[in-house]
Amino acid sequence: MASTSSTSSSTGTGSVNFSTGLASGIDWSAVTDALIKADSYPLTKLQNDVSNYTTQKNVFNALSSSLQTFESKLKAIKDSTSFGGKTTSISDLPSGSVTPFTATIGSGASSGDVKIRVEKLAAAQRVRSNGVSDAYAPLVADGQISIKSGTNDAITIDVSSANGNNSLQAIADTINAADKGVAASIVSDGTNQLLVVKSTATGAANALTITDTTNLGLADKANNLQDAADAVVWVDGIRVTSATNSVSGALAGVTLNLSATTDAEVTLHVADDVAGTKQSLQDLVDAYNSVNDLFQSQLGSSTALANSTVGGNAVFRSIQTQLQQMLTTGVSGIADGQISTLAELGIQVADNTGKLEFKTSQFDNIVSQGRYDEVQAVLRSSGSTTDNFATYIYGGSSVKAGTYGINVTQAARQATASATMAAPLAADETLSVALNGGTAVNVSLASGDTADAVVSKINAALKTAGVSALASNSNGTLSIASNAYGSAQSLTVSSSLDGTGTGFSAAGATATGADVKGTIGGFAAHGSGRDLIGDDGTDVAGLTVRIYATDSMVTQKSGNFGTVGFSAGAVDQFVAQIDGITDPLTGTIHATTTNLDEQIKEANDQIATVQARLDSKRELLTKQFSAAEQAVSQLNQLLASLNAKTSSS
């Protein structure tokens, strides 16, 4: 054995390191590493499992992100007015004239030409004050200012030096702080400061009522800058008025946004937006192909499959299959013989990679056949009814496609207050009408007023006040009814007389409306005014049908108002499918990544246990080999000593 040795060790729980030139000539470190390595196979397998699970999780997270991007593009397409929609243009505009309006297209718009002339724009009333030299100085005389816009509450300001609010700026601040439909500002004309007060809403019903006992003169006719006015527009020769410059309802599905008047008629053209729809379909294809690229990176070739951690994952492949089936499955709820699949629109699989292409020539052929109206039914959820007194309003992603019978047990009702009227009136009378808890409108009636005169005065007063109610007379019964239907409507009518004249009492008559009641397809539904809405948790959840019926009609038809058919468009189906996959709480990917997280945690826990056992074994082997090395060293020293004695003798 060698006569020299060198060891390095530590005691306690520390490790012992073996240097070169050991007394035994054995590399104990190599022996220890070999023994530990032999026992480390379970650790290596667990570490590989963690790496595999982590890679799978990253792939699923990437898929979720890609699908959410796809969904955002689908929603943008769905919300686009061009997707299966219409375009507008204006012609016949006189030379040098500005365009008098723009048109916004919604659902229900029909293609065609309409003659339109804007006679007057809606306006908000504006008044000014007399001028003062300094807006912040106390130059306003003591007095009271009262300003009221339409049916808003009045703003009353007691102006006085004692209150410290006798400056133009203080009055403007008080008006603006009240937030009651009136705005104030201060304008300089170069010499004086003037207070300008205006209604915040346009329309005759929002005219200002002003009293002013200060020196500002806000109530002086000479200080009126602009009268309140309704917009007046002629649509194909029919006069239409609107309190605002946004006119809807005159043309189905079209809102006219007025900006200028014109003496001559112009032509509004509404046409199918074929180009916009084609671009939307191409966007859908591009968005899908981005998702398909991720599937191809994992499954698209033998090399990709060999290197993929999700190649054998059933969930990953199931998601791919679900999306592919969406491309070929027909949209349910569409009548036989009509276009019902994306493939029929020209969206088809390009090759064996699953990539899509949009064959525009096939789409153009559909348009040339006059079948453009069928396109929107494939792309967007839609519905239709078979009864003239029932109209489809809305579907939504929660509705199961199909055809459902409509049964009505109660018609919607207006809030209607009625009384037996003795006309001509024998005495002067004041009626007070309040709708939905709003400010009461007082109507002054005169002795001798006929029934027609009474109705006319009531309706004029209600219109001026902007109250959505209407009076009528039927064989001596005076009725005042809310324009809207439903239990949210409440109407109170009282009289200065007690039961004579119009027949209303001093105590007042209060009436409330009623919501429609019934079922859709036998499923529970609830009413909101005239709208019958499928209850949550049913196949018709959110499906909305508007019922135009009276109680007598409900009885006559035995509650049967035909059927409503609903088809879930391809875009809505895609969105619903992706929601089910990517939902952060209940989605397929969330469940999969949660399971992978649990497997990663379990494997890491096992790694910690195995590593601790190996560390303990390494420490034990190190101590044992250190003791053996020390024993050999001691033997070498003893042998050396004996050899030395023998040599000396």
What's this model, at a glance?
The longest helix is centred in the C-terminal third of the chain and has 61 residues, at 588-648. The chain contains 12 helices and 32 strands.
| Structure summary, number of beta strands | 32
Strand order of the largest sheet: 18-32-20-28-29-30-31-19
Major sheet size, sense and barrel closure? 8 strands, antiparallel
What is the 3D shape? Answer: elongated
Strand-residue fraction? 25-35%
Q: How much helix is in the residues?
A: 25-40%
Helix/sheet category: alpha+beta
What's the gyration radius in Å?
Answer: 42 Å
Number of helices: 12
- The poorly predicted ranges are 1-21
**Mean model confidence by pLDDT:** 89
Intertermini distance: 23 Å
Structure description:
It is a single chain. The longest helix is centred in the last third of the chain and has 61 residues, at 588-648. The chain is 34% helix and 28% strand. With 649 residues, it is of the alpha+beta class. A hairpin with a 2-residue loop joins strand 28 (517-520) and strand 29 (523-528). The strands form eight sheets. The chain has an eight-stranded antiparallel β-sheet. It has a five-stranded antiparallel β-sheet with strand order 1-15-3-11-12, with no helix packed on it. The protein has a four-stranded antiparallel β-sheet with strand order 7-8-4-10, with helices on one face.
